[in-house]
Amino acid sequence: AGIRRAVVAMTDPDPRTAGRGLAHLQEAGVAVRTGVGEERARAINQGFWLRVTAGRPFVAIKLATSLDGRIAARTGHARWITGKRARTQAHLLRARHDAILIGGRTQRHDDPLLTCRLPGLEAASPIRIVLTRTPHLDPGSRLMRSADKVPVWLVGPAGGTADLPPPDPEEPGRPGLYALTLPDQEEENPTRLVSDLLRNLAEAGITRLLVEGGGMVAGLFLRAGLFDRLYHFTGNCVIGADGIAAVSSLGVADVATDAPRLRLLASHSLEESVLSVYEPMNKA
């Protein structure tokens, strides 16, 4: 085809295929230059990169809170803490991730749909994943009623999901209801639980995971330190101490030594709301 030179941003991290394509080009007499824009390319492909090199997907935590860090009133009412533009951005986040994760308690209380409902992006809705000790969904729930269009995965301990098939790693986005079984844990260990979860999701084909709620699940990932971004949408309301906290207990006794520290990457004003984007200071 008359190609004399190829410019490549990053090489393939997968040892099964790394360098093969470039070697074919060089054997054909094409001059190959690598590393041009590598940092940006790696950021774009971070989910794939982490899945291959770390055995886990890229993980983003999303919080939407009042000014005083509450996600709902004491009654559970939360509409709307953030404004319309913030909610639009939240739906864009869903479209940019392979899968979205919530806890079983949030699923039972809120009965969320978890799809992307922006015009033209409905097909980009993520796989809906529920982390639960009791892996059963109400047949009338919104997730169950829409599983024939957007897949739902139930993730939990052995037993209770035996009647459900596992997802197909070659086609993880196939609609239906599936189950992933996590190893049993003799004692509660957030880091091990999250590590096992992420390893299983990576093996099932997930490269980018959005953790959307609730406070218990967000707390698990923060305690484990196994996340890459935190998107914090802050509304312009104050709910008070009797509201529901955005994050469950982290066991912080000394702020200086125990509290997770994050680095602010960006801040955006979204009319009556603010979006702050963070990364962990010390990546796990």
Q: In what order do the strands lie side by side in the largest sheet?
A: 8-7-6-5-9-3-10-13-12
β content, as a range?
A: 25-35%
Give the CA-CA distance, first to last residue.
Answer: 46 Å
- SSE order: EHEHHEEHEHEHEEHEHEEHEE
CATH topology of the largest domain: Dihydrofolate Reductase, subunit A
Instruction: Give unreliable regions as ranges.
Output: none
Structural class: alpha/beta
CATH architecture of the largest domain: 3-Layer(aba) Sandwich
Q: CATH superfamily of the largest domain, called what?
A: Dihydrofolate Reductase, subunit A
Total tally of structural domains: 2
Task: Give the biggest sheet.
Answer: 9 strands, mixed
Calculate the mean pLDDT score and round it: 91
Overall body shape = globular
Total strands: the figure is 13
Describe the protein.
- The structure is a single chain.
- With 284 residues, the chain is of the alpha/beta class.
- It folds into two domains: 1-44, no CATH class; 49-280, 3-Layer(aba) Sandwich (Dihydrofolate Reductase, subunit A), CATH 3.40.430.10.
- 26% of the residues lie in helices and 25% in strands.
- The strands form three sheets. The protein has a nine-stranded mixed beta sheet with strand order 8-7-6-5-9-3-10-13-12, sandwiched between helices. A two-stranded parallel ribbon has the order 1-2.
- β5 (99-103), α5 and β6 form a beta-alpha-beta unit.
- α7 (190-203) packs across α8.
- The longest helix is centred in the C-terminal third of the chain and has 14 residues, at 190-203.
- The protein is globular.
- The termini are far apart.
- The model has no long low-confidence stretch (mean pLDDT 91).
